[in-house]
Amino acid sequence: MIDANKLVDLAIRLGASDAEVYAASGKIITVETEHGELGHAEESISEGAGIRVIVDGAEGYSSSNDPFRFEDAVKAAIVCAKARPKDPALKGLPLKPQAYPGVSGIYDQRVADISLDQCVDLAAGMIRAAKEDKGTSVTAAKFSSVVSDTVIANSNGVLVEDRETVVMGYVDVIIKEDGQVSTGFEYDVARSLSLDLGSVGTRASKLARDSLGSSHVSEQTSDVLLGPFAFGDLLESTLLSSVSAENVQKGRSGLAGRVGEKIAVPELTIVDDGLLTGGLGTSKSDDEGVPSQRTEIVTDGTLTSFLYDSYTAGKEGRESTGNAVRGSYSTPPKIGARNVLFEFPRSDVIKETKKGIYVNSVIGAHTANPITGDFSVECRNAFVVENGVMVKPVKSLMLSGNVFDLLKKIDGMGKDDRLTGAIISPTVRVKEMRVTPGA
Fold first, then answer.
1. Half-sphere exposure in the Cβ direction for 5 (13 Å, CA)
2. Which of 44, 60, 84, 410 could cross-link with 77 by S-S, CB 3.0 to 4.6 Å?
3. CB 243 within 8 A of CB 259
4. Which residue from 128, 149, 139 is spatially nearest to 172, judged by alpha carbons?
5. Bridge partners of 151?
6. Strand partners, 383
7. What is the pLDDT, as a whole number, of residue 34?
8. What pTM did the predictor assign?
9. At the top level of CATH, which class does the domain 4-210 belong to?
10. Predicted local confidence at residue 1, as pLDDT
């Protein structure tokens, strides 16, 4: 593993007042389909380091994936900082904490030991399961396993190491029958090799089969059941952006100045938990070495906190919430959610719905306005629900609204939590949403 402290010391000797090294190494195995059959399998090893420095009140960043050029990256970060103007809001890097919390469920030795051949077999089984319905064709499928080791060290004494694993399986299918066409997709992701990949394939083909024979519905205001994928996508593109302290401070959030205000139904609490057992965003610390924690964003319907990294927290003279995240060592940290959870009375929300529309997933959530919360999305695999049963599939449906209005109209939440990236999302019933037929 990279000697992060050695690079930190070099940066200080070269004139940095503060220095940080984020080092990462890992193995990724990916198996993908070509023309519906197994076609590409690859195992890759990566190692790299990102160096962040502060010189005369200005920040610089550089990275490298060449161990023989890590020292050059330190020098480049120094040059970058010297070329930038002083930032009065920059309060320095995180201080060494008293201790880091313990976390569990983020590493599985079976994933670390898995071979390329085993991954190919797992992907093949997932595809076979999808094709057990003889009318199903697989349009895309992917299986991947990741094992990574990270070290964060800085000149204030921070030194934290983590080892993590992730596995993911994805299937997209199509059925053509009697002149009708329908599609379906499923995926699952976990920290351990506990995924039932056959079930992923089976669920994808079943969804496509159930969606055959779809028909239009009229424009209407209806109770809408947002499935885990649909609800997660909508909130990731709207609410999570709005609770970023950076966006709040830059005037890019519709929630600026609203802490202490009711923004959701009174029964709803929204939590970001960096300590969640087995969570995809779980680790001892965030990606700049601040200990992970549990932060209530919304408490009983009231906005209680935004998400902060050290820089945005320093602007307000407060502590970071441990929400600095990185896509890789090649980029400096930015604010991001860790594991977003919803606390609300749970029930079999579909079974309890007398009349409504169920939406499995949506297309176009990324086009939502993160400031106003307005969205307009296309629904994929939607169904009319009557007396607790999905009675018929719906063709080409559009759903529009405002996420802040949506939070005030939630009146049911299922027990079917799914990991959908940073959000652990259930099925959510929302009263009186506007739905219109698509083209």
1. 6
2. 60
3. no
4. 139
5. 23, 161
6. 358, 393
7. 84
8. 0.96
9. alpha beta
10. 67
